UniProtKB/TrEMBL annotation:
One of its GO terms (biological process) is DNA integration. It comes from Chryseolinea serpens. Belongs to the transposase IS21/IS408/IS1162 family. Gene3D superfamilies: Ribonuclease H-like superfamily/Ribonuclease H (3.30.420.10). InterPro entries: Integrase_cat-core (IPR001584), IstA-like_C (IPR054353), RNaseH-like_sf (IPR012337), RNaseH_sf (IPR036397). One of its GO terms (molecular function) is nucleic acid binding. Residues 149-344 form the Integrase catalytic domain. This is Transposase.
Length: 527
């Protein structure tokens, strides 16, 4: 008799798997004259399923006895035969159209709807929009199962290191050194950059990322690193903590940092694939003889990399380089004129004079006076010093390496201190010169009478202030009379003006000629 196998066969006419024994039971009950409703209740199958099986049985023109003698495999072939595929003449031109237009979907602003409009314009008798979408999805899965339509030109750059290392040998000592291998790939065009480097330290990692940007000739909108310490200090699902220097590097080039999630390989699937291809097309193609320097090794890698980027994709008639030139090069951001400078960090306390010391140079830089006595963080590169307080940048200066000197931004000082900072002998002499030569000579004598010029600054300020209060002519005459008396200072001028002696033309107080001014020492004397 027939087989009573309990093997489950997934019948294509039913939504759920069914025992072959249950199928035999449906046919047997039908041949015994039971209704479809009764059969459905007995077998726990839906009436529609029962009707489908009975319809197939009726079309076979056979008997229950003959069906029952068939093994399960033949029974499955009779009742579960897949319908023959319908060949549609419209599929061939559709597939040709999709093959030609595949790259356009990665361009900004090009949608599947726009592609269907063009298809419909070329083939008005072709598929409707719904059928077009359906056949497009089938074609994409069958022909290009690895195609990623989500990557837009200029959007992301993925970076990682290979697991395997490369080696170089010292020609003198014979010592063999192991080198890391950095891999970077652009999301849309899949243009790849590979470089050997001594380590995964932050300075080497940033240098490789920067070299990749210059290889591509532009910067994408975002960079996607793995969770290595040179990029991510502490991973977090929502807000990972980034390395300060790497974050500054990305900001300098206008890129957002989007670290791949831990234990989520799909986030970096593209660069993982690039690493595998690197093993095949670069690692395996390097000469057996080891390079004698890192520069020589990278020269070899560069030559193989150029071949890789110009090799056509499998199943396509264009390469990574061609795809990059056509659709992604123009979408990248332009690079700054200068390269990024790696920064070092130092912590210091702002002194009472409003300056903070960069200990490595023993040079002092000003900060706004409101931060006196505060602890600040100094980030410095070869050319710049940035000062931060609680993550906010409060000052930036050009780096100066002269020890025990000050770099001061006048806007950082309090109002009264800003004026004091401008005081020097030349400042007062120039102010006096604008009033008159006699006043300039008198101010020079006031400065000269003090052991140190700074001791006379207040007196000079007071004397010159009379020019606004009583007028320039009275001040000039007061300076002449004070010189005639041999008196040099604020009190002498104040007394003359208060008593009005500058206005009295007495015989004994006749104006005496001022001496020639060759003995005025000038600004250079006081510097």
């Amino acid at each position: 008799m027939g087989y009573l196998s309990l093997t489950k066969i997934n019948l294509h006419m039913a939504n759920n798997p069914i025992h072959m024994s249950k199928l035999r039971q449906v046919i047997k009950l039908h041949c015994q004259g039971q209704s479809k409703l009764q059969i459905s209740a007995t077998t726990s199958l839906s009436r529609n399923t029962v009707k489908k099986y009975i319809r197939v049985f009726s079309g076979l023109k056979t008997t229950w006895e003959q069906i029952n003698q068939l093994p399960d495999k033949e029974l499955d072939e009779l009742f579960c035969k897949e319908p023959e595929a319908i060949v549609d003449d419209r599929l061939v031109p559709l597939h040709e159209f999709l093959k030609q237009q595949e790259k356009r979907l990665r361009q900004r602003g090009v949608t599947l709807l726009r592609l269907w409009d063009e298809y419909h314009g070329q083939y008005p008798e072709g598929f409707s929009r719904t059928s077009f979408y359906h056949h497009y999805n089938l074609w994409k899965k069958r022909v290009h199962p690895s195609m990623h339509m989500a990557h837009k030109p200029g959007d992301k750059m993925f970076v990682d290191y290979t697991g395997e290392k490369l080696q170089v040998v010292d020609p003198d000592s014979g010592e063999v050194k192991t080198m890391e291998v950095f891999v970077s790939i652009l999301g849309a065009s899949q243009l790849t950059y590979v470089e050997a480097v001594e380590s995964q330290r932050v300075e080497d990692f940033i240098s490789c990322c920067e070299n990749a940007l210059h290889y591509f000739g532009g910067a994408p909108n975002a960079i996607v690193p793995d969770n290595l310490k040179s990029a991510v200090i502490k991973s977090n699902r929502y807000e990972p903590k980034l390395n300060e220097n790497f974050e500054a590097f990305a900001e300098y080039y206008g890129m957002a940092v989007l670290p791949a999630r831990a234990y989520k390989p799909k986030d970096k699937a593209l660069v993982e694939g690039a690493v595998k291809i690197t093993y095949i097309r670069i690692f395996a193609s390097l000469p057996d003889k080891l390079a004698t320097s890192l520069e020589e090794l990278n020269t070899r890698i560069s030559a193989l990399l150029a071949v890789h980027n110009r090799t056509a994709f499998k199943g396509r008639n264009y390469s990574r380089q061609e795809q990059f030139d056509e659709m992604e090069r123009a979408a990248l951001q332009p690079l700054p004129e200068k390269r990024f400078e790696l920064r070092s960090s130092s912590v210091a306390t702002v002194m009472k004079n409003g300056h903070v010391c960069l200990s490595v140079d023993k040079h002092y830089y000003s900060v706004p006076y409101g931060y006196i006595s505060k602890k600040v963080r100094m980030l410095y590169s070869k050319s710049k010093v940035e000062i931060f307080y609680k993550y906010e940048r409060i000052a930036v200066h050009e780096r100066v390496r002269s020890a025990h000197n000050y770099t001061t931004d006048p806007t950082h000082m309090a109002t009264q201190h800003q004026v004091l900072a401008e005081w020097n002998p030349d400042y007062f002499l120039s102010q006096a010169r604008s009033i008159g030569n006699d006043v300039e000579y008198y101010i020079a004598q006031v400065l000269n009478k003090k052991p140190h010029p700074e001791q006379a600054y207040k007196s000079c300020q007071g004397i010159l202030s009379f020019g606004k209060r009583v007028g320039h002519q009275r001040l000039i005459k007061a300076c002449q009379r004070a010189h005639a008396y041999g008196l040099y200072g604020f009190r002498a001028i104040d007394d003359i003006l208060t008593r009005g002696l500058d206005l009295v033309d007495l015989e004994e107080d006749r104006q005496l000629p001022m001496p020639k001014h060759e003995n005025i020492r000038g600004k250079n004397y006081y510097q």
